[in-house]
Amino acid sequence: MSTTNTVSNSPKILQLLKPLVTNIQFYWFLGHVATVTFSVLHSLTSLFKAAYSPTPLRFYRWALVAIIFSYLIVLRQSYKNKKSLPFQLLVNRDFLLHDFLKNDNVQYLLFALSLLLFTTNANPNRGPIPLQGALYSFTIFSTFHALNYFNNNLNKSNARLLDWIKNFQAQFSEKSHYICATAEAMILLQMITIVPRTLILLVFRWQVLNAAKHLIVVLSYVVFIKLRYEQNAVTKTVIDGYVLKVDTLLSAPQLAVIPVQVKNFWFVTVKGLVRKYIGPIRLPQSKPGKKEM
């Protein structure tokens, strides 16, 4: 009986999919489904094996490929009316700085590319290994995008499922932005461990290429999170909140036993370095009277 139902439903499924497969948005949807699938598999397999062992690493790479695929489709749709886009990026500085690089999708795409190129090493001694948590925000975004597409294009008869997805989106959509921003900010903890490793590789082992890979990962993350901080109110709120917690903790009278050197390291050294080297990282403001493209 189940076989008969499957056969009878096949024409309906094909009829439903036929107009969709000719639209690029369908492949955008598949990219998000693949992102969620491979990211979950990476997380699950990482529970039992090191993140850079063959199986988790394979899923990590596939997830990043799916992420990049989805963002390329988005950018293709966003700039499909822009003739000779690669040429424009080379010769039109205003377009590059005031439009293209300010696009959230471009920033996430470039960050995903840096992860794919430089954090997929199977040997920690040959380059940066997968960053724990780096896929979280991508996975959350993809989950909501995939559910939205499914509800609007594939779920034609199940009203109960339709309502459940709508309620899920309404309940968790805003919260998900804070979760994503927190996950992105928490990658900083891994960056802190990468910096001394980079210095060791360069100064004591003379592994210039390996050190360069680590440095590129750090720089790409710093630029990415700084631009998110400048452009996204949620990211700014999350990071400012953590900074305030550290400030409050170190300034609390009941914690006067904390050595002055520790307090000075945070308030003077760390904040001074951030102001000097990270503060200037920002895209130029739009020119007055110039309409954004």
UniProtKB/TrEMBL annotation:
Residues spanning the membrane: 26-47, 59-79, 185-204, 211-229
InterPro entries per the UniProt record, alphabetical: PER33/POM33_regulator (IPR051645)
Protein localization: Membrane
Main location: membrane
GO biological processes: endoplasmic reticulum tubular network organization; membrane organization
Keywords: Membrane, Transmembrane, Transmembrane helix
Cellular component annotations (GO), alphabetically ordered: endoplasmic reticulum; membrane
Membrane-protein topology: Multi-pass membrane protein
UniProt protein name: Uncharacterized protein
